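input
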Amino acid sequence: METVTAQIVSTRDFVNEAHRLIDKIAQNNRVYEENCVKFFGVTTSQGGTILSIPLNNTLKMNELSKAVGVDTSTMTRMVDQLVDKGLVTRKTGEKDRRQVQIGLTITGKKLRQELAAALDNFYKDSLDQIPEKDREAIIESLLKVNEAINKGLEECCKRYCQR
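output
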C-alpha cells in the first residue's frame, strides 16, 4: 500500500500529490475497464455505452449521447457498431424519424449484466481491503475533492486557459 512519504508542507505540495493520486486512480480504473471489456469482446467506449443503456428500457439517441458524454454523430457511429455486433437495437420514431430509440438485444442485456457484475465485483473486492473504520473519512474526503474540482470546472477555461 502506498503511503505519503514526504510531509505535505505547502499548498503546491498538496496540489501536486493530490493531482498525482487522482491521475493514478483514474489510470488504474481505465486499465481495469479496458481489460475487462476486451475480455467481453467490446471496446471501452462500447462497454460504457452498453452500461449506459437501461436493461429493460430504451433511450433516445441524444439521451444516450449525453449519458456517455459524446456528441450525437460519434454516438451514431458507436450504435452502428453495436447494431452490427447484435448488441443493441435502433428504432426510428413513427411520427418523427429523427427520434431514434436505442435498446439492448437479448445478447446485449446479457453482456450488460456480465460487465456490470465484473466491474462491481472488482471494485467491491478491491475496496473491501480498506478497513471499515476508514471508509467514512475516505468518502468524505473524496466528496470534498470532487466538489472542489467541480467548482474549478465552472470557470476553468475562462480563468486558466488564456493566451
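quick obs: The CA atoms of residues 30 and 44 lie 9 Å apart.
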